[in-house]
Amino acid sequence: MSDEEPNMSTGRKTTLSENTLFGMGNPLLDISAVVDKDFLDKFGLKPNDQILAEDKHKALFEEIVKRNKVEYHAGGSTQNSVKIAQWMIQKPHKVATFFGCIGTDHFGEILKKKAEEAHVDAHYYEQNVEPTGTCAACITGDNRSLVANLAAANCYKKEKHLDLDSNWELVKKAKVYYIAGFFLTVSPESILKVAKHASDNNKIFCMNLSAPFISQFFKEPLMMIMPYVDILFGNETEAATFAKELGFETDDIAEIAKKTQNLPKENTKRQRVVVFTQGKDDTVATVGEKVIMFPVLDIDQNAIVDTNGAGDAFVGGFLSALVQEHALEECIRAGHYAANVIIRRVGCTFPEKPDFH
Fold it and tell me: Which positions, given as ranges, span the membrane (predicted)?
């Protein structure tokens, strides 16, 4: 990504074609409910976290659906981001492609319908061994604790889906790739194939640290992919955990960004860009040799309904500007706009059209 100003006189820079943005990840149905501290304590949850479900959480899923105000939304981190990118772009439809695995069941049908409504070109690997994955979003105030039961999402197979000629053709059509770190727990070999393709063809490969547990327990696959990462996203907690796992010996977020930027890189034609969001505090990004702070949009605390999806929305907004070849500052501005819209609504949902200029 260049630092030059895009040619704003022509308005949008590039006429986008279908399948320019490629995403691959865990398609999940979000089951969202407002809970209390007792509920969190009962299942040993932190108010603001993302974890994978264990046996002890089985009852959580049974209990949360019985809550009076439960909402179902199509979710999954990467799928959220490509949907938001498509929403920001509006036309043409199907600029965004998405791959992931679902079950042949009612929840799977909902995800297919929702992807279609969002005009995302979703190609799911469908299998009937495991049911479609779900994510319990336990909301308390402006915190969200996410518990993901991957189920079918965990069954994605490179040779059964990604390697098929018709699917790989869609991968090759893209110019920008985005895969959340969450998918490292499922199919690192699929990520590597896509990342290498991007690197070999000087295209842009983006990744997200996604959650502290990824750096802690999936450090090996994460660092296997890192040399191919052109743009790395994360939030302040994930950045701190990553720094600790890599022995950076600093908790200064700007310094963590710089050290992350300087990790080994395969395609030297593109300098790595590192972007760390910090909730209501400034977003930190590496710009060339500098680290710059970008303030987020002001929002009244009372207007925040639910921060679930804010990080995904930021990435989605960012990607929508990136595929249009806008400068980094513009990508961040688009990310801030999208996140600001999403936190005013339940789940990762959005109004009919964006109002972004």
Answer: none
